[in-house]
Amino acid sequence: MPSKAVVRNVGISTKRFMPLVGTLKGKRVQEALEALRFVPGPTAAKVAEALKSAAANAENNANQNPERLVVVAAYVDGSFFLPRSRARSRGRVGRVKRRLSHLTIVVDEQEGA
């Protein structure tokens, strides 16, 4: 039975999450956490947090073995944006969109091994 973790309204755009999240699918949870540990920046920290949460959900709620967990799916969806202002030339104001996103990670016990 797959278990998932959803982190909502993260203050990082989907564009920054995409390359990192794409590398997780099919990896074991421990391998994915080790790979994320060496990636700098707050993006990897948020992905690792969600991955740990999904593994804990599988272990506690579904009674699955944490050593056999594999990342089945990992995806990022866009959320709303926060409108902000930035000073422009000649006393004008420019709009800036601070984009937020939802991060979802699904893990399940590996078949066979």
Folded structure, characterized:
The protein is about 35% helix and about 40% strand. It has one domain (about 5-110): Ribosomal protein L22/L17 (Ribosomal Protein L22, Chain A), CATH 3.90.470. It is built from three helices and three strands. It has about 110 residues and is an alpha+beta fold.
Keywords:
alpha+beta, 3 helices, 3 strands, three-stranded antiparallel beta sheet, Ribosomal Protein L22, Chain A, 39% strand, 113 residues, elongated
How many structural units, i.e. domains? 1
CATH class: Alpha Beta
Q: Helical stretch count?
A: 3
Query: What is the succession of H and E elements?
Result: EHHHEE
Shape category:
elongated
Radius of gyration: 17 Å
In which order are the strands of the major sheet placed?
A: 1-3-2
Q: CATH superfamily name?
A: Ribosomal protein L22/L17
CATH fold field value: Ribosomal Protein L22, Chain A
Question: What share of the residues lie within helices?
Answer: 25-40%
User: What about the largest sheet?
Assistant: 3 strands, antiparallel
The overall average pLDDT, rounded, is: 93
User: What structural class do helix, strand and pairing data support?
Assistant: alpha+beta
Q: How many β-strands, per DSSP?
A: 3
So, CATH architecture? Alpha-Beta Complex
Distance N to C terminus: 16 Å
Tell me the fraction of residues in β-strands, as a range.
35-45%
Concise summary:
The chain is built from three helices and three strands, in the order βαααββ. The chain is α+β, with helices and mostly antiparallel strands.
Secondary structure topology:
Layout: E1 3-10, H1 14-21, H2 29-37, H3 42-61, E2 69-87, E3 93-109
Antiparallel strand pairs: 1-3, 2-3
Helix pairs in contact: 2-3
